[in-house]
Amino acid sequence: MMNLDLHVHTDASYDCNTTPEQIVEHAQKKDFLDGFAVTDHDSVKNHGEIRQLTKDTDLVFIPGIEISTKDGHLIALNVEEEIPSQKPVEQTIKQVRQQNGIAIVPHPFQIMRKGIKKRKLDKIDVDAIEVFNSRLITGYRNLQSERYADKNDIPKVSGSDAHVPELVGTTYTQIKTESNETKDIIEAIKKGGCGIHKKKTPTKEFIQQVIANNMRTRLGSPVKRLFSR
């Protein structure tokens, strides 16, 4: 059984200042965490650096990307090449699978976070749904996501959606796999039966991130984190 955080951001994302070094440093401090997937917004820029940083560690690194499709966000795992954004989600899923990747819907139904709507989700074929995203206030949408996945027999995963290094591993997916090779981990996710470790981002930290992200968007360039924990 491996504990993997499948939704982590670095400074290759427009809304994050966390460096690859910080991600690896904090992941190594979490004895319970076996690895993570980096899923930057529409970018694979830091994959090479993270692979080098984890090379001589016990951490598993899964290359990924969070793609801004025309219909909402889609996480692709086991992809090395960038996939064009703002295309229909059906087309995006095809391109993910052309790279032997898997398509996961993060924070579905959360319109303010560009989650895919139910009427669209009903029409597409995805490999898994993120049923617990640790960046939450009430947790209602997570509950809705889990019920949807159960009803439709879709594999379930979870992720921290960490935008600051301290929160890597806040939430993680427990995966029963034959080895720590990415291809085996991917196959295990597709088969389902993953465990979900649920722990929310502290409310204070979540609100601080929202404020900082809004300021980054308005200023048009990254800004330093404005608050400390």
Summarize the structure.
The chain is an alpha/beta fold. The chain has seven helices and nine strands.
Summary keywords:
about 230 residues, alpha/beta, TIM Barrel, 9 strands, disordered C terminus
Structural commentary:
This protein has 229 residues and is of the alpha/beta class. It has one domain: Metal-dependent hydrolases (TIM Barrel). 31% of the residues lie in helices and 21% in strands. It has seven helices and nine strands, in the order E-H-E-H-E-E-H-E-H-E-H-E-E-H-E-H. It has a nine-stranded mixed sheet, sandwiched between helices. The longest helix has 17 residues. The protein is globular, with a radius of gyration of 16 Å. The two termini are 32 Å apart.
Secondary structure elements and their pairing?
Elements: E1 2-8, H1 20-29, E2 35-38, H2 47-54, E3 60-69, E4 72-77, H3 89-98, E5 102-105, H4 118-121, E6 128-133, H5 140-152, E7 156-159, E8 172-175, H6 182-191, E9 195-197, H7 203-219
Parallel strand pairs: 1-2, 2-3, 5-6, 6-7
Antiparallel strand pairs: 1-8, 3-4, 4-5, 8-9
User: Secondary-structure element sequence?
Assistant: EHEHEEHEHEHEEHEH
Total strand segments: 9
Q: N- to C-terminal separation?
A: 32 Å
Q: So what's the overall shape?
A: globular
Instruction: Please give the largest β-sheet.
Output: 9 strands, mixed
| Low-confidence segments | 221-229
Number of helices: 7
Q: Work out the helicity level.
A: 25-40%
Averaged pLDDT, please? 91
> What structural category do the secondary elements indicate?
alpha/beta
CATH class: Alpha Beta
CATH architecture: Alpha-Beta Barrel
How many domains in all? 1
Considering the protein shown, what is the CATH homologous superfamily? Metal-dependent hydrolases
Strand content: 15-25%
**Radius of gyration over all CA atoms, rounded:** 16 Å
List the quaternary state of the chains.
single chain
Major sheet: order of its strands?
7-6-5-4-3-2-1-8-9
Output the CATH topology.
Answer: TIM Barrel
